[in-house]
Amino acid sequence: MSIQNEAVPHLQAEQIFAGLSDYQHALSSHMDWLRHCYSAILNWGEGHPHAADRGTCAFDVWFTGAKDSLLGGFVGFGRLGELHDEVHDTAERIIGRATTGQTITTSDYEAMMALVLAFGTAAQSLERDVWRTLATVDPLTGLGNRQTMMSQLIGERDRAIRLDQPCCVGLADIDHFKKINDTFGHAAGDRVLRAVADCLRGAVRPYDILYRYGGEEFLVCLPAATLEDGTQVLERMRAAVDQLKLQDAAGRAIAVTATFGLAMLNADHSVEESLERADNALYDGKRAGRNRVVLYRADGPTD
């Protein structure tokens, strides 16, 4: 992943899509500035039709405003800004030479072109990184999706084995979600999914990892957690969902609860087997009345 904080794949995909649109406009503005710059350099002796003032490049404004955005969190963002500054500094130096009557040499042009090419390459690389990251994110909730989940779970299991530490995996399923969709509509159902995702995100530990498992199901990986530790985290998540106060567009209250299943992620079982155990515990919780946390144990479920 190309985000600087790689441990947290929670992204607001809609914000990144909007940021990409602004990014494209900023790049287009920079290309306009470059055309004016080339014209100023090549035609300086003919009245220099444009002084290639940096103030005409809107990329500066965009870059400053994007530093604190999600796009600004990508590793390549800072390097792109550095190259942008170098392009402008080099252009100003060349035009400064022309202003004082000095000859613009071939090496001046080559230095400018090399920086422009490096800037273009960095811009393309940043955009590829953004799209690659978006491919691993569920666009509705901003959580990691199943495409990236399995490889990361295998990595967490391997690390737990290597460090001889416990690790748990939990599954959450929104109770009666079909009824929510049927009663309030799918738009309201989507709002419920986003609200539950935000709720779960706020209830986990900083190093826990959340995914949208599919439909109305979510998965959480709990590194360095025993079953007892995991139970506490999942119970906090369950209580947070239970306390949600949601309404549809007409102001009707939408009651939301979730049921959770928990299992160990260790050397005794594959990731798939651990997920199946967590799933079995979850459905034991459904059968027992929902809105509860159930642990998988070899001798039977425990809540």
Describe the structure.
The chain has 303 residues and is of the alpha+beta class. The protein is 56% helix and 12% strand. It is built from 9 helices and 7 strands. It has helices at 13-42, 59-66, 75-99, 106-134, 146-163, 177-184, 186-203, 227-242, 271-287; strands at 167-174, 209-214, 217-223, 246-247, 253-254, 258-264, 293-295. Strands 2-3-1-6-7 form a 5-stranded mixed sheet, sandwiched between helices. Helix 9 links the parallel strand 6 (258-264) and strand 7. The protein is elongated and about 90 Å long. Residues 1-10 and 46-50 have low confidence and may be disordered.
Number of helices: 9
Given the helix and strand composition, which structural class is it? Answer: alpha+beta
Low-confidence stretches: 1-10, 46-50
Strand content: 5-15%
Count of DSSP strands:
7
The Cα radius of gyration reads: 27 Å
The first-to-last residue Cα distance is 36 Å
Please summarize the sheet with the most strands: 5 strands, mixed
Q: What is the overall shape?
A: elongated
Q: Mean pLDDT, nearest integer?
A: 87
> Helix content range of the residues, please?
55-70%
Please give the order of strands in the largest beta sheet.
2-3-1-6-7
List the helices and strands in order.
HHHHHEHHEEHEEEHE
